[in-house]
Every structure is written in structure tokens, then in C-alpha cells.
């Protein structure tokens, strides 16, 4: 019998391969580490995976740092973790990458899920449990990795087709959908923790922030709730991203969302061109709206609120420690618009350097607690800041009756499917919808209210 154990050691998970006889007596034991390092140098994040002989796993290095070089930090990080688990599994089962077959893929899925199959030559005692959806994401990383290396694995790539109806809410046409046979089944879980900030929630949050006299927080939550910005897009804003343009002879305030080489990983604009070299700033793609940058029209009250924050916060930071301010807050000037002044990131922390997502999340969590808004304790599935963007979408649907195609444009989504995920009515919403329907039905058919069986 071979037992695969997962052990917490030195803030990381390592694995053991144990050989035992039929009586459970241990004959041989070996540890599998595969150490993962993240190196940040000259605004570049490099991921390195070492085997147990402290040799760099070259194929993984090339795939993550060269093939995926233009991908967002979070995508690369998720991929390197997935590949670490793959190589741990290969070492534990003494399997070569090129020899993975159907049985091995099935064992790999159990390994990733975190529990042991009911029968077989392997017994797994694992601590980390993953969802089917997460395992499917890892399998997709492996497909990309195999394709990059030119390795065939029929069990991983085999597909099936089926017809689904109403997948497109506009055309309502039947469409052929292709899925991988090796993928695990996933459903749509019922989430009773609110996925969006309601108008009443927002009113309470603003009241708490104003009681805190926190101008920074008001700027951030209003950008996310009133204009649908993601947190990373907000934290990546710089002076040159706040501008005025002429529309039909009138000046209008706008925000420009774009990536910079000087950005930290939490400041990326998700759907904009990823920057790996400063020369990209002058490229045609980078200067093309919808590819290199996105333009968000805002209102003058928010434009003035942002300028008021900048005047206060940055004057204080410069006066307190000018050299630190110039070094830590400075941002690349992209030259996509005429901007001759030095460029700096807009939002600062209490010591006058760039505000991080971690610091912001700590504050907004305290606001949610004081506002008595559920925060889904112990789970990372409900991003607190992203609920403001969900609130923006639901406000458009519930109050402004915005058409889904227009909402797609406002949300800056490439696909309609992404937009539809933002429709998350709460139990209260469902109650109101159903009662409205029933009351309108009673108006049309008054007799339904009567008890016909008395």
C-alpha cells in the first residue's frame, strides 16, 4: 500500500510518499517539497519552481515567465501553484509528464480535490480541499502547459459536444457547447450572503465613512459604486488619468484606466493591455481605446471630490517626507495625452505612500461590520470591494431598467455571459419580484384571491 500524506511545514504544504505493508507498518518514507519562490526585481515578478534537488523546473519557468509574461499577476500566480501541485503529484506517483493516462488523470483529480478514492493502490491523507470549479481551473492550466510543451494527453484534451437552449438571452437560440470530458461537474451554488451593495447599504456605508471623516474612502467607494470600477482600477489611478475632454462643445471629466510598468500587482486594470516594457507606451495598441486603455466618463462632483482629495493628501505627504513621497508614489508617465508634470498615484496610505489593496480591505471590512452587512466570514468567495461593482450593475437593472447589451458596455465586458453573472438578486429582491407579480395577477384575475373550497 502507498499512502500520500499532506503536511503543513514552514508555512507551506509538503507531501509524503509512504510505503506500508498489509499490516500498515511503514517500510519507507520520502518527502516531496517542490519549493516555489516569487522574485520581484525591476518591476517584474518572476516565479521559480525548484524540485527536491533545488534544480529549477525549466519548462515551468519558461511557461510562466515567458509564455505567460503578458498575463496578469493573479493568473500567473494561480498557474504556478497549479503546476506545483502537478509536479508534486508526478513525484509522489512516480509518473512522467509524458506518461499521464486516464487512470493517472483520475488520481490527479482526487489529489487536487483533497480526498482519497474509494479503492485502488493509493491512499491519500490530504489537508487541502478544493472545489470542482477550482480543480477544473487547474486542469485548464495543465492543458495550456501541455500545449506549450507539445505533449499529447488524450485523457486531458478529449471533448464532448451537447446542445443547450437559451444560453444567449438575446437570441435564445440553441447553441453547440464543447466541454472537456475530464472536467468535473459544477453547478451554480445558492449564495445567500448578499453579492451586491444595495442603495440602502450604500447610504449606510457613506454615513459611516463621513463620520470617520475619510475622504479617501468616500472617493474609492463612489468610484466603484457609481461608475462600476474594480478596486485594482481605482488603486492604479494616477494624476494623468484624471482629465477633461470636449464632448459636443462642452468639457466633460473622464478617467483613463490603463496598466503601467510601475504598477504593483494590485493596481492592474484587468481588461487593459498588460505592460512588460516601457516601449509599449508608444505602441499603437496601447494608445487605442478598448485595447491599451479605457475611458470612463464621470460627473463633475466626483471630479471635484477627487481633486480635493489629491490636494489635501498629496500636500500632506510631500510636506511630511518629500523624498519618500517622490520615490514611493511616483508613477510612469505614459505620454498618451499631453501631460508635462511629474506623475503620481492618486490614493495614498496613512504614511504617504501608495495605498495597497490589503490596507484598503482591512478598512472596508470594518465599515461592513459597523454597517451590519454580512461579510461571509471564513470564505474568500465574496470579495467585499467587488460588491460595489455588483451594486452598480444591479442599480442599472433595478432602477434604470438598463438593457443587458447597454449594461455590457457600461461594465466593459467582452462577453454577454460575463455581464449576466452580475445579476444576483437577494432573497428580499425575490420576495418583492414575486409579490409584485402575484399582485398584478390578482388585479387581472380578482377571483384568484377567493377561496373556492370553503
From TrEMBL:
Record's protein name: Integrase/recombinase XerD
Gene3D superfamilies: Intergrase catalytic core (1.10.443.10)
Subcellular location: Cytoplasm
InterPro entries on file: DNA_brk_join_enz, Integrase-like_cat_sf, Integrase_catalytic, Tyrosine_recombinase_XerCD
Molecular function GO terms recorded: DNA binding
Keywords: DNA integration, DNA recombination
Keyword Isomerase: no
